[in-house]
Amino acid sequence: MITSSAKFGSRTAAVAGVVAALLSASPASADSAAGTIGVALTVTNACVVNGAQQLQSNVGSLGDINFPDQPGVFGNVDGQLVGSLGTVQVLCSPGVSPQLTIGSGANDAAGKRRMGSNGNMIDYRLFSDASRTSELGVGSRISLGTATTTPFTVPIYARVTSAGAVLAAGRYTDTVQVTLAW
Question: Using an 8 Å Cβ cutoff, are 178 and 102 in contact?
Answer without folding.
Answer: yes
